[in-house]
Input
Amino acid sequence: MRERQKRDGRKLFFLSIIIVFCILGGVVFFVANRISIEMSTSAIYNLSESLDLIRNTVETILKKETEYQKFIAEEIAASEDPFEFIRFYKNKQTMTKISLILVGEKEGFSSAGEKFTEQDLDFSSNKEVNGMHISQSYLNDMGTWAYTVKCPVVKDGKELGTLYIEYIFDFFEDTLPNKFYNGRAVLYIMDTKSERLVLKPTGMGERDAGHLDLEDFYRANSILEKNLQSEIAVNIHEGKEIMFYHDIQNESSLIYMWPLNDGVFYLIGYVPVAAIQQEGRSVNHNILIVVIVMLCAFFLCCLLYSFSRKQQDRMRAEREAEREVHNKQLAEALQAAQIASNSKTVFLSNMSHDIRTPMNAILGFTTLLARDADNAAKVREYTNKITASGKHLLSLINDVLDVSKIESGKVVLTIGEFTLSDLVSSVDAIIRPMAKDRGQSFHVSVTDIKHEYLLGDETRINQVLINLLSNAVKYTPENGNIWFRIIGLKQYSNQYEHIRIEVEDDGYGMTPEYLETIFDAFTRAENSTTNKVQGTGLGMAITKNIVELMGGTIDVFSEVNKGSLFRVDLELRIPREQTDQQYWQENGITRILAVDNELEICKSIQMLMKDTGVAVDIALSGEDAIKLAEDAIENDTPYQVILLDWKMPKMNGGETAKKLRAIIPQTVPIVFLTSYTEDEVEDEVFLLENVDFLAKPFFVSAFKEVLCKLADGGCEDETSEGSENENSLKGLHFLAAEDNFINAEILSELLNIEGATCEIVENGQLALERFARAAENEFDAILMDVQMPVMNGYDASRKIRAFEHEKHTKHIPIIAMTANAFAEDVKDALDAGMDAHVAKPIDMELLRKAVNQYIERKE
Amino acid sequence: MLACSMAIVLTACGKPDIGENLISDEREEEKVVNVFGPMEKTKPNTKNTSRTAFDLTVEMAEEELGLTVEYRTYTADNYQEKTYDEVALDRARNNMDDFYLLNPDTIQKLGYEGKLLDLSELDNTKNLREIVRTANTIDGKLVAVPQEVVVYGLFINKDMFDQYDVSIPNTPDEFLACCKTFKENGIETPIGANRWWLETFVLAQAFADLYNGGNTREEIDALNRGEAKYSDYMRPGFEFLQELIDKGYIDAKAAYTYEAIEGEGPDFMAQKTPIVMAYWGAANTETAYGKPDFNMQVIGFPSERGQMPVVPITGYGICAEAEHMEDTKEVLNTIISDEALQVYAETNKVISPSKNVDVECVPALQPLKDLVEDDIYVLGSDANMKLEQWGNTCLIVRELLNGATVDECMAEFDRLQEELLKE
Output
């Protein structure tokens, strides 16, 4: 309804505009027309006035000429010899010839000295100027149109003769307007009797036909109507003024014929109507311009108004769109917040569940422990389970703290040199038992790696691998397979090894929906199959953050019930000095033989050994190996080491080794390459001399260790074994600053178990005071909590160190024992003057190592 | 917006400042050069190409020199009135104009009278072809310079020739045979003629050998010295004309009164007459034979040496006592510059007097152009001949048309030659 009203209103508005414009147009037309008519009348009047003026001028000239002629006639009459007077007359501009014929004679003389008769002149029209007869126009001997006026020469009332003076029409040229109506009007002087045009316009563009006579004028200007021509002829005969409209060269024109000197001559010509109405047209043009400008202005206003409306509408639409976007964002934010809140709620719920489960175990078992305190076997069982639950609880807490730290950007990578060999073996050592427990097959492969020694945060890489692999173990059913691959990719830079780590399983897999959130914190795959799997759901978030922190990428591909593939790409810096060629040179190893039925493995060995300067020949079967070995001996370039795959088709490693041993000397070590799961080594192999085993995948460092072991029972880094006893805390006396009573008691009990004693103080201040009072060597070390009332552990340590410095006492080891377990906390502790940092909950093994390290130094 | 627009319009249309009530006449005195030329009494709304071409060059001069060239004209209303040449002579003798477009006979008369300025001093005359320079040099003075080399030829209606199976005539006999065929086929007057241009037939036959025989200089000298008689040269041509008249191939009475083109042109265009004579430019201009409804060709006049174009060199001459002498010299120098002549030749499709300008002509003119380019032509006027040829022959031919015998005409030539020798 409203829309219809709006439409009607718009129609009315446009209708009113049209009416207003029609009225305006009518008024303008009326005014313009009126102006045109008035100006036209005025223009014709002006034209008539101009023609009158020209006529008056011409007639005045004619009159003056005749008056002068009279004067000359009087002069001649007064002169003694009239002919002498004429002979000496000098031609003037207007009068080109003077002639005299005496009364009674037919011939006379002219000023040119020649004879003159009236025969050549035509005075038959009897027309007069100022009472003197004027001849018909003629072409004179100067080649221009002329006329002659005659007058009597009278002396004392007696006529002596007749004076003839010739005048040329060219003289009138200067009296006519130069550019009549801006050169658009044409003016001729016509001799009425002969109808010849005796004075014509000059100048370029005026030379087309029509200049000859009246007939030519009619013909040239298409004035061909006989009636009109007759009417004109009558008027000319009567010496009347004539003016009429006619088209000349397709232009409406006004033709005028104005008699001069009672019609002796005629001023004829034409002017285009447009030329005489120029002013009127100019006014109308101006009116038109004003109207057009007003219309333009009006339409411009309409346009601006419309533009402004559109702009406003657009802005309104934009604002609304913006508001909608804003609302949508708010809704999304709200949704996100709700999801986050839900996630956190779920997380808290999970946490609550996950924390309560081990806590429940701990508390439950402590209850059982209290009940069965007398049963040593049960006590051991309960404590074992309490310990396991506690460790699980600790790992939960560590994960939560890790995520919190990563998200707040506080993680710092500790870059150091490591070998892929150590990395793989440490991961293998952890995962393989786990997989084995679940009856899964764990496959490890390393291919195309060019550099084994790399720079990076080994601990974090380890953490990533453990996370991925432990997940693979968790989410793969029993008897499943897990593949762990390290693949060397094409290097972007010589300074970086580009590696790809792939962890693949044929386990439960993940839904596409879950894949989208797998790397988000606080998510965990929930289904009937995995519900029994415990975890915080933080592992993948931590993994992704660590990988990205190292500048790498992680991708995941998975299908439900088919398995998952995690792919981590990393670029790790290559240390300047890769391997020490020295070992190989010193031991005279320049040439070895690698035997494996898989070409890839052989090539990998070649690649890894490239930097050692050792030449590696490869054989893909036992038979080939024997042949190569024989050839080498024959060529006097024997192999110094044989690397032999244990499992090969046709001839296996053991059999090949036996045959090789028959060819090569005993001094040449044979190293069997076995997979980690390979346990079924034939006993008889151990009967062979100088053989050992190297787990796949092949690494130079591991290979070197095996060779060392074979050479002299182990290399130089066998230092720490067997020092277990030296790490005992037995007999040591500690000063412990611990504000928590329970923790203090636990510490005290644990130290007692270790055979050590301690004195507990409740804060740093007391620790400082006690240390100051202590006798020399009373305490072997100080165990310092950090967060304590009165004085914290950092301040206390600083003051103790200051005290030592001041009193010149011996340096006492201070070991931080705190729940602040991050690297930054360790750094802060060391900066405060402490010697070591042991995180709570206390791992007695770590404590032992730390204490003994410093006590030894003290000793 | 409306208010602003109104204000702007009203301001624009408003009165000038009240302080500016003194109106000064800022018109500069205009420089003017007067030229006198012929006027054709032809159709009112058609364009004359050669005049248009001249106008274009004059506009170049006006623009370059900042002056106005004013054009005065004359044409006789009928044969009894003074001719253009007579009026041009009168006007030049009375210093009425600054420069004139003159026919060859007028050039020669005024040149010998010393009424024309020596134009050798104009820079652009150095580009002139030798034929032009030779024809217009009198007593060592170059007295006139043309904008085109005017070549006269026979304009034939090739369609009619084909219709009556008439071949193009080369010799006088062939021409007579050709006219006979037309006559027998009912063409009342095979040759359209006027009182001006019939002398071309005579001159072609008279001087074909003189100009193409390789002995030109000597033969002219003999004529000038009176050792040879003009009448001997002219007789064959006159007799030939007489035969054409006698056999009714030319209407002598009509021709005696006809102005050029104006008289004979309409019949030729209406395909009543198969042959007329005219100058080269007539083939290009609407006012003459520019747009025929038939296949037109332009060929040379018949002579014993074959077709012969007749080249009377016209030209612009400056009055020796011109009122606006310096301006006139500059105007003439400009309109005969290579640039102006290029414009002229392109507009008018003519042979340029400048050796540096050459343009293509319409196909109808190609036969004539080929002859001229092969140096086969007869000069219609030659200042080296003391007896003026173009005008005198024209007048004597007119006498022939008026009933005089060939002998009487030859006697007139002898008389003129004798008078000249007496001088």
Observations:
- The radius of gyration of chain A is 65 Å.
